[in-house]
Amino acid sequence: METKKYLSLIDREMAQMPDFVKEYQLETRHSLTTSYQYLTEIRRFFSWLIAENLTQAKSPSQVLPSDLEKLSRSDVMLYLDKLEHSRNKQGHLNSPTTVNRSLNALRSLYKYLTITADKNNGEPYFDRNVMLKINSQFPSLYKHLELPGSCLRSSHVHRQLEIPVHGLFGPKICRPLQRARPFFF
């Protein structure tokens, strides 16, 4: 997509955001694509907060930093579970990439609010970063590795699966090791 189009989309998202998200956007150095995607994920999260009555805001632009400060790990996990089990515009379940993008956008916002921001006499908006308690459920870096005991969540592999296992994010399927590839960090 061309630069002008992304700038237009970013402007449209920014018009729906509270001031602290506008500050976040100005102070972070993401690519245009990442900025747009993160803003849409933040808006989606704020809309969920409103729908779940976890804020008194009536629109995403009215969400306050204090609304984010008081969220528990369970609240965020419920959001990720809802996101994972929601359908996208094409009618498919959201992919692990979508869930990870949302998680990364929220982590970035929380990092800004708890570390980077310099608002309250040199202090951030708040100190408690609930996102530090959330593990990545779908590490895309390793999604093609088949390691001993690894669980696969891909629907296109579903027919080949052998052992169902139920977890917090819904059914996961484990299958015997086919090939183990060594990997290094």
Structural commentary:
Strand 2 and strand 3 (170-174) form a beta hairpin. The chain is mostly helical and 185 residues long. Helix 1 (3-14) packs parallel to helix 3 (32-51) and helix 3 (32-51) crosses helix 6. The chain is globular, with a radius of gyration of 18 Å. The chain has helices at residues 3-14, 19-27, 32-51, 65-69, 73-84, 96-116; strands at 151-152, 163-167, 170-174. Strands 1-3-2 form a 3-stranded antiparallel beta sheet, with no helix packed on it.
List keywords for this structure.
185 residues; mainly alpha; three-stranded antiparallel β-sheet
Instruction: Give the distance, in angstroms, between the N- and C-terminal Cα atoms.
Output: 33 Å
Instruction: Indicate the percent of residues in helices.
Output: 40-55%
Q: What does the oligomeric state look like here? A: single chain
Given as residue ranges, the uncertain stretches (5+ residues, pLDDT < 50) are 139-166, 174-185
Number of distinct beta strands: 3
Task: Please state roughly what percent of the residues sit in beta strands, choosing from under 5%, 5-15%, 15-25%, 25-35%, 35-45% or over 45%.
Answer: 5-15%
Strand order of the largest sheet: 1-3-2
Major sheet attributes? 3 strands, antiparallel
Average pLDDT, all residues: 82
- Helix count, DSSP H or I runs of 4 or more residues: 6
Shape: globular
- Derived from helix and strand composition plus strand pairing, the structural class reads mainly alpha
Helix-strand sequence: HHHHHHEEE
